[in-house]
Amino acid sequence: MKVQEPKPGMMCESTQGRDKGSCYVIMAVCEGGRSVLVADGRLKTVASPKTKNLKHVALMPVVAEEIAAKLKEGGKVYDHEVKKAIKDLRREREGK
Asked: Is 36 helix (H, G, I), strand (E, B) or coil?
């Protein structure tokens, strides 16, 4: 299933670059919708997210609901919340 439109709180995986295979949470969609700001809570923190071209990420049909709600309300999202969301996704993918 191909997800068409990126939204804040949605999970994605890098398909190009040095970070290929890394999972991220989308923090914001840049104007024009050609790129997204992503964070993993470790190397790319919420305070300084990485800009990724949409061509270089695979969008996942998984949304970190708590993070998405906070971003929509304009609340503060913390790195430990992003790390937990990615960790939960990996567990789910592995079937544990």
From this structure: strand
* Helix count and strand count (H, E) for the chain: 2, 5
Instruction: Kindly report the length of the chain.
Output: 96
Q: How confident is the model at residue 66 (pLDDT cuts 50, 70, 90)?
A: very high
Of the candidates 52, 77, 59, which has an alpha carbon nearest to the alpha carbon of residue 67? 77
Element spanning 73, H or E: helix 65-73
pLDDT(20) > 80: yes
Q: What is the pLDDT of residue 89?
A: 87
Residue pair 12/59 in contact by the 8 Å Cβ criterion:
yes
